[in-house]
Specification:
Elements lengths: L1 H22 L28 H10 L25 E8 L2 E6 L2 E5 L33 E4 L9 H11 L2 E5 L3 H6 L5 E4 L4 E4 L2 E6 L19 E5 L4 E4 L8 H9 L4 E5 L6 H4 L6 H11 L3 E5 L13 H13 L6 E2 L6 E5 L1
Parallel strand pairs: 3-4, 4-5, 5-6, 10-11, 11-12, 12-13
Antiparallel strand pairs: 1-2, 1-14, 2-3, 7-8, 8-9, 9-10
Length: 346
């Protein structure tokens, strides 16, 4: 009886939040720039999202490879310990959600713990494996980075839960701040591309990405998308967020340096004619790894939510082929398991 009542309350809450969630807040107002025309953000070198006609063409012609309905994780999932004084620990949770632990700072990227990447939990892409860590296994979080407002990156129920229990700083792109505040997600700092803030001994830079934003009809590209550059005296990490392959990787290396660790997306890329500007395929990801000069890269954005047409394991096989083609050792670009922690030492 109680569980049924809880489900109905959850459905009622979803419906109450739905119009606001689809709108995605008022967006950004400010002066024009090289990636903002005064009303909409754009990519300097590519489109910022496909047209509705393109979407209908994809749906009409798609040849999607079936996915399994569920996969069990490989048994990894113990909460990671506190890192050593010279250590950075990177735990893959799922999709693009990582726990990054430094001696003085814990960062969570694009946290998605919900069952579906959707404005509602009764429809939309459903996860095919559990998160590698549960929400209640997380250590105290200092910073939550939200790369942009798509549902598989800005999961409002997870963000509200984190705001209630962790007292973290939420870091995101221009135009997302008021919307998150409306959802009870505070405190929030908005940044433009290349702007930065600092916390404890860490420098946090909002880096450019080639993507787009929207949460509902008629509200495209009113908010900014991007990645995160994280640097301390001992370590550096780059989180790409969602992005197509672009000149930004070489520019990030020029401005920020070569990262010790790069977290790069490898999935949700078929069909290429539709996805190429907004999502990298594994060969693109390996080229990004090379452009960045990353010492270590870790794959993400695969195997959790079925968003596009390739099979669940195709990104993994394609990454292996791309590493061989570009002469990159397997240990230099790794595929993590949910719950796996990789530890980097100075």
């Amino acid at each position: 009886m109680a569980s049924g009542r809880t489900r109905w309350l959850g459905l009622f809450e979803e419906l109450m939040h739905l119009p606001q969630s689809l709108r995605g807040g008022p967006g950004f107002q400010g002066p024009a720039s090289d990636h903002f025309d005064g009303a909409h953000f754009f990519n300097p070198d590519a489109t910022a999202g496909r047209s509705f006609g393109d979407f209908l063409r994809w749906q009409r012609t798609r040849r999607a490879t079936p996915w399994p309905s569920w996969r069990e994780n490989r048994g990894i999932g113990a909460a990671p310990g506190v890192p050593a004084a010279d250590e950075m620990a990177v735990t893959f949770i799922n999709h693009v959600t990582f726990l990054i632990q430094l001696p003085t700072l814990n960062v969570l990227t694009d946290p998605v713990f919900s069952e579906r990447a959707s404005p509602v939990q009764w429809a939309g892409p459903r996860r095919v494996h559990a998160p590698g860590l549960r929400l209640n296994q997380l250590p105290a979080i200092d910073v939550v980075f939200v790369s942009h407002n798509h549902y598989d990156h800005m999961d409002l129920s997870t963000l509200r839960a984190l705001a209630k229990t962790h007292g973290a700083l939420f870091l995101t792109g221009l135009g997302n701040g008021v919307f998150l505040q409306q959802q009870g997600v505070t405190p929030v700092i908005e940044l433009d591309w290349w702007q930065q803030t600092a916390l404890h001994d860490a420098q946090l830079v909002f880096t450019p990405a080639q993507h787009w934003s929207s949460r509902g009809p008629g509200r495209r590209n009113h908010t900014l998308w991007g990645g995160l550059w994280l640097r301390t005296d001992q370590h550096s990490l780059y989180f790409a967020g969602d992005t197509g392959y672009s000149r930004w990787f070489a520019e990030i290396r020029r401005r920020c340096g070569a990262p010790e660790v790069a977290l790069l997306p490898i999935g949700a890329y078929e069909p290429r004619w539709f996805m190429c500007d907004q999502h990298m395929d594994p060969d693109d990801a390996v080229r990004a790894h090379i452009d960045l000069g990353a010492r270590n890269s870790i794959a993400m954005h695969f195997g959790c939510f079925r968003l596009t047409d390739e099979g669940i394991d195709e990104p993994l096989a394609a990454l292996e082929r791309a590493r061989l083609a570009h002469g990159i050792a397997p240990e230099a670009f790794r595929i993590p398991a949910p719950g796996e922690t990789l530890r980097m030492h100075e």
